[in-house]
Amino acid sequence: MSFFEMLQDPHSRHAMLVHFPIVLVFVGVVLLMILGARKFRPKGLKVGVAGCFLAASLGAAAAASAGEDAEDRVEGSAAMTPAAKAVFEEHEELGENGWIWPLIPAGLVLVSLVPRRGLEIGAGALALAGALGVAVWVGKTAHAGGELVYVHGVGVPGPGATAGEVQAPNPARDDDD
Predict the structure, then answer these.
(1) pLDDT digits (tens, 9 = 90+) for 52-91
(2) In angstroms, what CA-CA distances link 177 with 170, 171, 172, 173?
């Protein structure tokens, strides 16, 4: 399957896009910690951190859009057991408006660009707290998505499937003999 064919498949597209906000949020947290250690002074680093969270927001929106496209193909599949449905609902709820959350630390970091020392430190500290909250949200969303794929087999093409075909996984067997 070519790269462009993968982009046409909502499951592949979601799997590719979802990693951008995950990485960018955690990079943003580390950069914010460095910024805090530097007393929220380096303007170039502030702009870089804000850019990181803005890009994470765009990535989250793109991943959510691809996830919505993929949803139609998995809702009626045999892999969608009641347990998988519960995890699916959690993943969908967490990811639906998730593009908004990275905008909070981005905005606060941009506020810290105002050259007033108290405002720089206050907005920077709030940005770090917000970024840590966003990292928890990203972790929970990613964990639910990983559980859907790796535990329940939702959205995974079965053996012999072609691009865009999602089949139910083979049921687990208890054959410890």
Answers:
(1) 999 999 999 999 999 988 887 788 777 889 999 999 999 9
(2) 19, 18, 15, 11
pTM reported for the whole predicted model: 0.83
CA triplet 144, 135, 155: central angle to 5 degrees? 25
- 24 burial (CB, 10 Å; 0-12 / 13-18 / 19+) is buried
CB 155 within 8 A of CB 11: yes
**Burial of 103 per CB tally in 10 Å (0-12, 13-18, 19+):** middle
Structure tokens at 51: 């850019």
Tell me which amino acid residue 100 is: I
Would you say 89 and 141 are in contact if contact means Cβ atoms under 8 Å apart? no
